[in-house]
Give the backbone structure.
Amino acid sequence: MIRTCGVILLCLSFIALQACSDPARERFEAAEKALQERKMEAALSGYRSIPKEFPQSRYAPTALLRQGELFGAYYRNYPAALEAYESLVFNYPRAAETPRAMQHKGEIHLIQFLDYAAAVEDFEGIRMRHPQFAGMDEVLLLLAKAYGGVPDPSRQLAVLSGLIEKFPESPRAAEGRWMLANVLLSQGKFQEADREFRKLYYLATDRKAIARARWGMAQALEGMGELSAAVEQYEAIRSDWDDPEYIAGKIARLKGRLRAR
């Protein structure tokens, strides 16, 4: 019995020793410390070594994510950042870090390379494979911008409507409301645009936002041929607009068109 207990204690000690001496964790923690100390080369070197030397480690996906973020945000080496993110997505498809890597990929395609089709593919991939992703409101806003560049107006409108419906309290939904109203306006859907700008007007809490909403309403009313109502909106923002002379010119031209009727 004593001998058996001794063997058990020896095994437990061995397991504890193994847990304490995790080289991947030590490497990761050293890289994190280097990053905090702004030793970027050392941090990058540490992160890059982990998936190569310890591909089965639970730290490998996070190391790849950090690697991509360093390449993208600090070094501005976007091809290298994409390579890190793609490695993470391909090799660790079920990792918690994967949807964030896909989002960063999409952001690089959208913002840095203006490759809207590739960005759409990245963001739609998150919607399809990671529907519970915590950053889905941001993904939907980015996806709407990508659809605007393709362009695919119907899908853009659908994504914006989904964003506003699913995440009504999100700051991204607030930005999405403005985008939706302006997209409708640009497509000549003046009645729908007017409705959305009026919603924004009632939600606005500062003079600048109120002026923006009134401007959109005026544009929509002008598109519908309701010139008197448009003049009324332009008059209301004359003193709050960045370019009062431009507003004055708009009012004068519309009043001229009314007199010519």
Notes: Residues 195 and 215 are 13 Å apart (CA to CA). Residues 5-19 have pLDDT under 50 and may be disordered. The domain at 169-261 is CATH 1.25.40.10 (Serine Threonine Protein Phosphatase 5, Tetratricopeptide repeat). The radius of gyration is 27 Å.
